[in-house]
Amino acid sequence: MELADRICVVTGGASGIGRALSLRFAAEGARAVVVIDRDADGAVATAEAIGERGFANTADVTVEADIDAAIERTEAELGPIDLFASNAGILSRQGLDAPDETWDLVWRVNVLSHVFAARALVPRMVARGGGYLLNTASAAGLLSQPGDAAYSVTKHAAVALAEWLAITYGDQGIKVSCLCPMAVDTAMLAGGEADMSAGAKAAAVRGVLAPEVVADAVVEGLHDERFLILPHPEVAAYELRRASDHDRWLAGMRRLVTGEDGTPRAG
Ligand SMILES: NC(=O)c1ccc[n+]([C@@H]2O[C@H](COP(=O)([O-])OP(=O)(O)OC[C@H]3O[C@@H](n4cnc5c(N)ncnc54)[C@H](O)[C@@H]3O)[C@@H](O)[C@H]2O)c1
Fold first, then answer.
1. Does the beta carbon of 14 sit less than 6 angstroms from any atom of ligand 1?
2. Is the CB of 236 under 6 A from ligand 1?
3. Rounded-to-integer distance, Cα 190 and Cα 127, Å
4. Which of 193, 188, 212 has the alpha carbon at shortest distance from 203?
5. Residue 212: how many CB atoms within 10 A of its CB?
6. Distances (CA, A) of 36 to 55, 155, 222
7. 190-218: pLDDT as tens digits
8. CA 242 to chain centre
9. I need a surface site. Which of 110, 133, 160, 166 has the fewest CB within 10 A?
10. Residue nearest ligand 1's atom 42 by CA
11. Is 15:36 a contact under the CB 8 Å cutoff?
12. C-alpha–C-alpha distance, residues 28 and 258, integer Å
């Protein structure tokens, strides 16, 4: 898929990876980029940085009616959405003792928001012959996130949902890519680092990418229409290691948590 003349929507576009994707899609010649975020000022700031092809929409992605309304408004005012980048996500920064409310919120942001977008868009896209869903998961969705149980679980679910969408609707013109970076230099990483062991933090800093580099990888992945977009290519090798010898991989992850391993953490 080429982005020139496309109508694109990006959730979580006020900050970090979503902001970088929004700006990059515009730079690639998108006809319109709709920036969705619950942070109204941040969404407007990204849209203003894009200029006349940028549009801001305040929405909470955990509320299905908000996503429906944003999609309806975009299609009524701008035209059919070609690419929906469902990117907003949050950490819990906790283990087993995270309260149920935290598990529910992380589930809603990291998984149900993708369901809501697909539920609204897939029938429309199938009816008009196709469309593209780009779902941001994480390397934690292929591996794990030391220190954050809800993030690990929901990002695995996000990968599973993206796979399911590709399997179920791939023959009806729905293209799906799943973005799985490790550490990226955003507000989320700055918040998450406070909870890491010294070893994991040092490893994360070594592997950290700028959001603009992630946007480069996304444009390339969309061009190739590749399912897995891995801005840190080493994630493919880690995934293979996990699949080929789970016990060995778990032992390595335990060493990472205790800070004895230099492998970059999954983010
Ligand atoms: N930063 C990393 O190291 C990293 C690594 C792998 C994956 N990711 C994933 O990338 C995505 C973007 O993360 P980021 O690092 O840019 O974080 P970020 O915190 O900089 O940006 C996230 C954006 O999502 C918005 N958001 C959060 N909850 C929302 C809600 N309920 N409704 C609407 N908007 C909401 C926030 O306001 C913010 O603008 C997330 O899905 C994250 O899990 C990040």
1. yes
2. no
3. 42
4. 193
5. 15
6. 9, 20, 20
7. 876 655 555 566 556 668 999 999 999 99
8. 22
9. 160
10. 89
11. no
12. 43
The Å distance, Cα 87 to ligand 1 centre, comes to 7
Angle between helices 211-224 and 16-27 (to 10 degrees): 50
Q: How far does the centroid of ligand 1 lie from the alpha carbon of residue 147, in Å?
A: 18
Higher-confidence residue of 204 and 238: namely 238
Instruction: Cite the DSSP H helix spans in the chain.
Output: 16-27, 40-50, 64-77, 100-107, 113-127, 149-169, 187-193, 198-207, 211-224, 234-244, 246-257
**Dihedral sign (CA 203, 253, 221, 151):** negative
**Which atom of ligand 1 is least distant from the CA of 192?**
3
Can you tell me the distance from the alpha carbon of 91 to that of 103, in angstroms, rounded to the nearest whole number? 10
DSSP β-ladder status, 131-136 and 228-229: unpaired
Residue 246, beta-bridge partner list: none
Q: What pLDDT is stored for residue 65 in this prediction?
A: 98
Residues 86-113 pLDDT 10s: 999 999 999 999 999 999 999 999 999 9
Tens digits of residue pLDDT in 147-195: 999 999 999 999 999 999 999 999 999 999 999 999 999 999 887 665 5
> Is the CB–ligand 1 distance for residue 149 below 6 Å?
no
User: What average pLDDT score do residues 216-238 get?
Assistant: 98
Indicate whether 266 pLDDT > 50.
no
